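We modelled the chain as a single entity of 177 amino acids. Its sequence is:
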Amino acid sequence: MPDAAEPGPGAEEGTDGGAKGIMVPVVLLLFGILIVMVVFMNLSGQNATAATAITETTWQLRSMTDYHGNTTPVLDGTVVIAAFGLDGRLTGNGGCNGYSGRFLVKETAIVISRITSTSIACWDAGANEMNTDANRQEELYFGMLEEAASLRVHDRVLTLYDNDGKLILTFDPAVSA
């Protein structure tokens, strides 16, 4: 009867062998990395949705784009603000008047409705007369808000698009006064 096979080189009696012995620390290391990634992603990943991103900043209008694709910066001397609340309320200042409305965001789709504002005419104190350009800008802004159908937040810039996917409003984070 032949002798039993002898263990190969490097194998010791009573051990699991080299490959199995290293697996436990590797598995523990990978498991630890996975836990760190899950915790990190939950802390920083909360900013990922558009609905969350727009509520974390008060926005200042940079420019408006008309139906012909002409982009117009906000008039000098006017500041247009939008603040999207966690409660679905939109509040701000249109340059002359305070306003409020409602909004709903799902993924990158947005609906803004029921914009109401105070009714104070824009006044140019330096010329001591009504500022018709600022009044017109504010009226266009309120209308464009309600035309918004989608949004994008990228590099701290909020852009709103109409139903055709055309850019209509561009915002930057508001500058603190």
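As a brief sanity check on the tokenised model: The first helix runs from residue 18 to 44. The domain at 50-173 is CATH 2.40.128.270 (Lipocalin).
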